[in-house]
Amino acid sequence: MTVEERLADIRQRISKAEQDAGRAAGAVTLVAVSKTFDADAIRPVIAMGQRIFGENRVQEAQGKWPDLRAETPDLELHLIGPLQSNKASDAVALFDVIETVDREKIARALAAEAERQARRLRFYVQVNIGLEPQKAGISPSDTRDFVAFCRQDLKLDVEGLMCIPPADENPGPYFALLAKLAAASGVERLSMGMSGDFDTAIAFGATSVRVGSAIFGAR
Ligand SMILES: *Cc1c(COP(=O)(O)O)cnc(C)c1O
Questions:
Q1: pTM for the whole structure
Q2: 35-45, pLDDT tens digit by residue?
Q3: What is the mean pLDDT of the chain?
Q4: Cα–Cα distance, 167 to 122 (Å, whole number)
Q5: Cα 137 to Cα 83: distance, rounded to the nearest angstrom
Q6: Which atom of ligand 1 is nearest to the CA of 35?
């Protein structure tokens, strides 16, 4: 299949999952994850009308998105990978949405940079939903307080929660837990679901899915 066929297929599967879950058409936003793919691989996806993209490395994103943005001004870029404090300035300058606010130190650095650059970004708090030692994220039990801290003390526009469930396990219960934490924290949006499990995530209330290899091919 071509990248165009794969994208069309993903769009159809998202529509079907919305319908099956009794959710409104268009309730779920597709974030096309273009990490490791260069600008020439991304252009056909932009040409098909996709406007929202995810990248996991600041430096890699800096190498391709300024040109793509100059060609297509209404793109929206999400950072979906871990962020070091010394990259906060570059991240705030380049991205529109940062989905990986996973500790107090980075939240403070992002708030300071957003103010310094007079940039209005949107943020997600990343939750370590399976309490895995190798994964980043706020623990489920700390999520509500951390969201309140980011909003009230740092004035960050936290619009949702993001998670990556443990690999090789049924993701459903983890998606359900993230939805519960979002309701308890007073946030509306849920970034959950990737190529292998986005249909399930939509059934559990995902408002955006982050799909990479199913669109762009294997990395
Ligand atoms: C790479 C990545 C994705 C996309 O993964 P695929 O399995 O290729 O769809 C989604 N979310 C995060 C955080 C990622 O790093």
A1: 0.98
A2: 999 999 999 99
A3: 98
A4: 27
A5: 11
A6: 1
